[in-house]
């Protein structure tokens, strides 16, 4: 019997990532098998999760995934877990449309209690109505209790405890206002090596929590869950598909479910556009997003790899590329300093990050009769765009029009949208669209 809880907060930057990472490390020290999850389309926090406990966080998203798929993910990735620790997104009730897709909605769908992280730096007894409001706002959202962050002293914590006692909410402890403890929750320039530098900070957080937070009481208050059978449909394939996935410092924004879906349909080989000289033998190539703008020189000087990819694409090879992967397949990428670096030169456009502009939001892409869900998050733009976009309708979370495009040239499809391809059914639909000659 495993335990399951959701960690959330009244707002962003309250400390839920800090608390989550400290708890994950602490549970690992206590030899608890823990599987982290992350609400929403986040690629950064799951990397921190792996640093904290050795297991990559798995995204759970009510916009991109069906409820059945979410439960399948919990059962599949948490099958050997003693604790499923789900980190929320933004504030508890913040969704794409009111509370739709929020952590609160996820808590209701999963019938899982919420541990509320409260930033106490500038508040004492006044925290009582804040907590009470979150506890009472939606009776279907069960708040198990609170942990306070950035507490200044024992006396400060006593006042916070008194506030909890007076409103009947359990307090599990606190994290002191530690100096130089700042975990970035979202930063497109934060690469893997920089994330690893936070390992010592996670240790410090876990050290502090072990003395000031009752982690056993938190697990006692968490939901007990039994592993359920995973709903799946056996795919009958005439042949196994050989997938090649770009994965290195430059390309690593990958949902674990996308890789699992590929493994259900065939075999997956990873390769590095930076370090390898040519692509592996494959039927289908996947270029995820990542940090190509940080490694422009390394990508550009690897001419053998650039030629190998272009030859594969030109000769009818199947490729799907998103965001940074799409930029890489263009003619060039222009750096922040306005320096141009040659890339694969398959698509007739250039990408630039010289004039940064944030593009952010959920996307629903309708291509023929198939619907794909995903999100955009990028600062770059395409210029000198001479490619013709495929006929697709791409809307935002409120069904409004967007300027986002999906490109299709021969058997290569690319877009700024990070699409969720986490079931074999969705992945096969994408492959069929790529092979569609219409």
TrEMBL record:
GO terms for biological process: cobalamin biosynthetic process. Keywords: ATP-binding, Cobalamin biosynthesis, Glutamine amidotransferase, Ligase, Magnesium, Nucleotide-binding. This is Cobyrinate a,c-diamide synthase. The record marks 418 as: Increases nucleophilicity of active site Cys. The a and c carboxylates of cobyrinate are activated for nucleophilic attack via formation of a phosphorylated intermediate by ATP. CbiA catalyzes first the amidation of the c-carboxylate, and then that of the a-carboxylate. NCBIfam families: cobB (TIGR00379), PRK01077.1 (NF002204). Catalyzes the ATP-dependent amidation of the two carboxylate groups at positions a and c of cobyrinate, using either L-glutamine or ammonia as the nitrogen source. Pathway: Cofactor biosynthesis; adenosylcobalamin biosynthesis; cob(II)yrinate a,c-diamide from sirohydrochlorin (anaerobic route): step 10/10. GO terms for molecular function: ATP binding; cobyrinic acid a,c-diamide synthase activity. The active site is at 323 (nucleophile). CDD domains: GATase1_CobB. Pfam families: CbiA, GATase_3. It catalyses: cob(II)yrinate + 2 L-glutamine + 2 ATP + 2 H2O = cob(II)yrinate a,c diamide + 2 L-glutamate + 2 ADP + 2 phosphate + 2 H(+). Belongs to the CobB/CbiA family. It comes from the Bacteria. Its EC number is 6.3.5.11. Residues 6-188 form the CobQ/CobB/MinD/ParA nucleotide binding domain. Its cofactor is Mg(2+). It is an enzyme of class 6 (ligase).
């Amino acid at each position: 019997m495993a335990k399951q809880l959701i960690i959330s907060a009244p707002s962003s930057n309250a400390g839920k990532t800090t608390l989550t990472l400290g708890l994950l490390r602490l549970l690992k020290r206590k030899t608890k098998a823990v599987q982290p999850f992350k609400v929403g389309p986040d690629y950064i926090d799951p990397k921190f999760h792996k640093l904290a406990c050795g297991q990559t966080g798995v995204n759970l998203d009510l916009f991109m995934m069906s409820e059945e798929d979410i439960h399948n993910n919990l059962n599949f990735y948490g099958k050997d877990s003693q604790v499923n620790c789900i980190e929320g997104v933004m504030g508890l009730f913040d969704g794409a449309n009111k509370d739709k897709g929020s952590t609160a909605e996820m808590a209701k769908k999963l019938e899982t209690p919420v541990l509320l992280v409260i930033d106490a730096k500038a508040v004492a007894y006044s925290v009582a109505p804040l907590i009470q409001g979150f506890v009472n706002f939606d009776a279907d959202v069960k708040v198990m209790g609170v942990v306070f962050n950035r507490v200044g002293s024992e006396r400060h914590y006593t006042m916070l405890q008194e506030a909890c006692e007076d409103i009947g909410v359990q307090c599990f402890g606190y994290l002191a206002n530690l100096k130089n403890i700042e975990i970035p929750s979202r930063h497109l320039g934060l690469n893997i090596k920089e994330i690893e530098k936070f390992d010592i900070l996670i240790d410090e957080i876990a050290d502090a929590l072990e003395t000031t937070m009752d982690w056993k009481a938190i697990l006692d208050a968490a939901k007990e869950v039994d592993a359920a059978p995973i709903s799946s449909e056996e795919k009958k394939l005439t042949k196994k598909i050989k997938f090649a996935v770009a994965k290195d410092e430059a390309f690593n924004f990958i949902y674990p479910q996308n890789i699992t879906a590929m493994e259900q349909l065939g075999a997956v080989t990873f390769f590095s556009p930076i370090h390898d000289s040519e692509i592996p033998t494959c039927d289908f190539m996947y270029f995820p997003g990542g940090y190509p703008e940080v490694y422009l020189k390394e990508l550009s000087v690897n001419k053998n790899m650039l030629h190998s990819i272009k030859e594969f694409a030109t000769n009818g090879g199947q490729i799907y590329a998103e965001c940074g992967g799409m930029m890489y397949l263009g003619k060039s990428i222009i750096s922040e300093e306005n320096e141009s670096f040659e890339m694969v030169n398959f698509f007739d456009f250039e990408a630039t990050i010289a004039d940064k502009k944030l593009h952010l939001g959920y996307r629903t892409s309708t291509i023929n009769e198939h619907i794909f869900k995903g999100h955009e998050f990028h600062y770059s733009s395409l210029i000198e765009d001479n490619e013709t976009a495929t006929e697709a309708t791409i809307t935002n979370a409120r069904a409004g029009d967007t300027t986002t495009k999906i490109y299709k040239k021969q058997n290569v499809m690319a877009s700024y949208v990070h699409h969720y391809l986490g079931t074999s059914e969705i992945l096969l639909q994408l492959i069929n669209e790529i092979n569609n000659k219409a």
